[in-house]
């Protein structure tokens, strides 16, 4: 676009020929300017969208690493809770103290009741909470993983609200971790995950990406319409240029025909004059002058303009020589005008082809 847009503007600015109507030239330049502005806007939007995507991918990578660390933490504490529950159940399954031999270390009835309460109130509850922590971490990982699939603001906002709910539940379950070091590690990871909901977080960046995508799609439609309009105007310009070329060709053909007729008339007149003054010319020894005029006439008729014409004297041949010299000057001027016309035709053809 950095090359094509200036090229389009330069080509449109080059349409300065007087043969191009001012209204058509203004329409072409106006459409070209709007097309260039649309292309530049679309290019800027695409570049910004790519920048946002790169930033979002970087943040998602950080979120995934944090979720992996949190998943490992949740798994460890779930295993610990399971081990604690197994140990408690093992205690409950020891032989009844009334049936076993005394002194074998079997728990008393009171100890069994206390252990049973512990199983019901602590161990099972702790295991459920750690298992819920694992499920919450998996849910957060799923939402982060499908962020690229959210292609509408409605779906994105729904996922954002769901992510916030899971974060709130995560905070409660992290507080249930019995190990202070584990709780602190979980708190730090929770802060990192919460950054996804900030103004420069992954969800906000995705929302801006969607807005830019809609902007690019709108600009694509506008650019398509302007391209069609510019193509139609270019076709109209080519059509008018063709008519101008046809008119110029007809004018050149008429000019050439007129020149040939004029040469024929002059040649006939010279022939009649030659016949009329033959006797007089012979008497005055002017046959050589008449022949020189005839040669000059034939040279002019053949397209040579560099012939020398003797206009000295005061007789009829001198007057004829003056007329022939005047005709030669007119022929030279006509040739110059024809050459200028051909140059103008070539310039117009170049502009139309460009």
Automatic annotation (TrEMBL):
<dbReference type="Pfam" id="PF21689">
    <property type="entry name" value="TorS_sensor_domain"/>
</dbReference>
<dbReference type="GO" id="GO:0016301">
    <property type="term" value="F:kinase activity"/>
</dbReference>
<keyword id="KW-0472">Membrane</keyword>
<feature type="domain" description="HAMP">
    <location>
        <begin position="284"/>
        <end position="336"/>
    </location>
</feature>
<dbReference type="InterPro" id="IPR038188">
    <property type="entry name" value="TorS_sensor_sf"/>
</dbReference>
<keyword id="KW-0418">Kinase</keyword>
<keyword id="KW-0808">Transferase</keyword>
<dbReference type="InterPro" id="IPR003660">
    <property type="entry name" value="HAMP_dom"/>
</dbReference>
<dbReference type="GO" id="GO:0016020">
    <property type="term" value="C:membrane"/>
</dbReference>
<keyword id="KW-0812">Transmembrane</keyword>
<protein>
    <submittedName>
        <fullName>Hpt sensor hybrid histidine kinase</fullName>
    </submittedName>
</protein>
<keyword id="KW-1133">Transmembrane helix</keyword>
<dbReference type="Pfam" id="PF00672">
    <property type="entry name" value="HAMP"/>
</dbReference>
<feature type="transmembrane region" description="Helical">
    <location>
        <begin position="260"/>
        <end position="282"/>
    </location>
</feature>
<dbReference type="GO" id="GO:0007165">
    <property type="term" value="P:signal transduction"/>
</dbReference>
